[in-house]
Amino acid sequence: MRSAYDCDVLVIGGGIVGLSTAYALTRAAPGTRVTVLEKEPGPARHQTGRNSGVIHSGVYYRPGSLKARYAVRGAAEMVKFCAEYDIPHAVTGKLIVATEKAELPRLHALVQRGRENGIPVRELGPAQIAEAEPEVRGLAAIHVATTGVCDYGAVARQLADASGADVRYGADVVRIDRRPDLGAAVRTRDGAVVRGRVLVNCAGLHCDVTARLTGDDPGMRIVPFRGEYFTLARPELVRGLVYPVPDPGFPFLGVHLTRGIDGGVHVGPNAVPALAREGYGWGVVRPRELGATLAWPGSWHTARRHWRYGAGELRRSLSKTAFTEAVRRLLPAVTPQDLLPAAAGVRAQAVLRDGTLVDDFLIKEGPRTVHVLNAPSPAATASLPIGREVARRALAALAAG
Q: Model pTM greater than 0.70?
């Protein structure tokens, strides 16, 4: 029977979560045959390769949540992984800065949350902020020592190589025949068929569509939000990583300043609705995908609930002057001429029917199937623990079958 299958575990998606799952599978159960199908010509072409490269500490996330547990654990493991494979990385620490009095209670709450999550957090006054970041202004800040930066594209490539999996690029999945007593047969756009005993869905921006192809109802939809970035023309204005105090009601971290592993400084992102799953600019519109987003009741509930926040994000997207104003709250010396356009990213945000933005990682199971249905930031940081959890569930399904 084993020979009737092309592999034991078939993973859809060659981003960092799919590849870390393949890596975890072959380490937990040597000899397990793993195939990864990725529609792009290489790994990490979407969320993984288009983020700011931050190794998040886990300070923001609700104690006990998967995000908190996996980010704290994953940050340490990611640094170790990068060191082991000589991947560029640095543990720089970061500042979270309150620029208004109204933000001070939220900043103090982050101190408590960080301590509950076991993260070293140090409180700073204005003079200490100026000492750490001479061009940054704020009323108070916290320094989070375990934050860092790395090259997640390089991490994904190393995971693919080290996993020993059969990673197939240019393999766009168009049909899935999943049978609880047999496994799954997947057809790709070029007509190839791949059969696996267990299927793992790590399709990111397309994970809900992939779940429905298996016959499972994911109970959510991916609503894509584009994050637009700039590069700072005067990188000497920023020494490290500088963040605003986030809005506790919205799972986005706001416009921040990130000195990357290449020495350049990323500024952003904002968060605006994308007009396609891979809508990296206002000119990228896919009517079918946009129609599916608009047809989902949760999209309208979200819009009504967060319209004020969304209006501000849209304004910053359409006006460079408005975007500059947001940056100047942290970095007064910046001018519009300092902001050079950079590649955008799209966040795969799961939204429930009632408009709830899923805040935690979301992993569900079906017959012989594991679906990763919400894995935006800090999923890159947390990818090694996420991969182990998904692999554990896949191996349990394999044993049961």
A: yes
